[in-house]
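Dear colleagues,

As part of the handover before I leave the project, I'm documenting each prediction I ran so the next person doesn't have to rerun anything. This entry is a single chain, and its sequence is reproduced below.
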Amino acid sequence: MQADEVEIEADSIAVIKLGGSVFKSPACYKRAANFLAQRLAENPTENLVAVVSAQNGETDALLREALEISTEPDEAALDLLWSTGELRSVARLCLHLQAEGVRAAAFDVRKTGLRVEKRGAGVSQATFDSRGIRNALRLCRAAVVPGFLATDDAGKIVTLGRGGSDLTAVVIAAGLGASRCELIKDVAGYFSDDPHRCSEAKPLPLLSFAEALAMADKGCKLVQRDALEAAERWDVPLLVRSFDVRTAGTWVVRARPSTGVLLGSSLQSAANSLHRQVGHANFSKIQSAHENQIQKENQNGICHQGHSRSTGS
């Protein structure tokens, strides 16, 4: 190990997903970099993995471009074209972080370590090799990786379905054994109603995965349903929030604490205590460990209600 390298503990890593809804213009990348740089300055022992989406509207624009060329574009070529949106976001954010004085590593999709068997296979059969990101975090405090994308067994770039950046972030958080996965949205977490339409909507500081999944089934698209299922499956605490540090956001965890709703640092401690730390570099091993736990619970008479998986859309 070089002199400036440091060992990285899993629970010192937070995964932060930044979606298209917060990248509405090129200027938004500077705001995101400032947010991450301030976060690192306030938490000197923390390391960040930023999972980024394409700028708002860019994925649709690239699809329209492809359809103008061919009414039935080749899937491999379309995935390659789509990937340029995420990669531009990676480069932009990394450059802005460096301008803020933050040492940041930019990852191409082929270097993130996320693999799926083939296009459309979903993450239930995915593998994740965390060594590349871990090695980068020994030299830099931030790594910027593309969401929505993986590579298949042949090494080709494939997409994980629309809205797949939430899912990418959860997969990477699980594989790294991160303390939590934060999903930055254009609203400050979950509310009792749509805050854009209802002025009396109340913020919800804490939800169980079951409650968030039930809201998704009723049409709430704040977090991709596949991502919620994956977070529940691998017990990854989610914090759904905005850039506004004055708002606490919503923690989504396996179960509500029996003592009722907690606030502030107590809530974060409760979420972290519910997180089963995972040190496996291979994502399929995490899946196997979880399935073994379910088997033990069933043998002990504990009822576990699973959810069927589907690909993102």
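Confidence is low (pLDDT under 50) at residues 1-6, 259-313. The radius of gyration is 19 Å.

All the best with the project,
I.
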